[in-house]
Amino acid sequence: MDFYLNQKIFTHNVRSQIKTIFAENCKIMIQRIQTIFILVAEMLIASLFFFKFADLSVNNELYTFTVKGVFNGDVMVFDGLPIMIFTGLILFLHLVIVFMYKKRVLQIRILVFTIILLLGLTGLLFYFIYAGFTGAQVAFKVPVAFPLIAVILDYLAIRAIGKDEALVRSMDRIR
Question: Which domains does the chain have, with CATH numbers?
Answer without folding.
Answer: 2-27+36-174 (1.20.140)
